[in-house]
Amino acid sequence: MDEGIIAMLVMPLVIFMIFVAPIWLILHYRSKKQVNQGLSAEEQASLQSLAEQAEKMSDRIQTLEAILDSEAPEWRNRA
């Protein structure tokens, strides 16, 4: 192979290994550390609130489906 072609192939690899790879690894392991620390108190409260809202919505949906089943029994087949 020509030396110019080899240089064109090696230089991007060297630049990647010197600059991109270390930054990538630092950011990767920093995000892993944050995930392993768990949820903060604020995130836990927000998650609890969302779970309660989801439970209320589930109850409402079941109520609405019961009403529709009694008033329009074929509503499920219309979709």
Which keywords apply here?
single chain; 79 residues; mainly alpha; 2 domains; 2 helices; 82% helix; 0% strand
Would you summarize the structure shown here?
The chain is mainly alpha-helical and 79 residues long. The protein has helices spanning 3-36, 41-71.
Give the overall shape, derived from the CA principal axes. elongated
**End-to-end span in angstroms?**
65 Å
Q: Helix/strand-derived class?
A: mainly alpha
Helix and strand string, N-terminal first? HH
Mean residue pLDDT: 89
Note the total helix count.
2
Unreliable segments of 5+ consecutive residues:
none
Give the number of DSSP strands: 0
Number of discrete domains: 2
Task: Give the biggest beta sheet.
Answer: none
Strand percent estimate? under 5%
What percent of residues adopt helix (DSSP H or I)? over 70%
Rounded to an integer, what's the Rg over CA atoms?
A: 28 Å
Characterization of the model:
The protein has 79 residues and is mainly alpha-helical. The protein has two domains: 38 residues; 40 residues. The longest helix is centred in the N-terminal third of the chain and has 34 residues. The chain starts with a helix and ends in an 8-residue tail after the last helix.
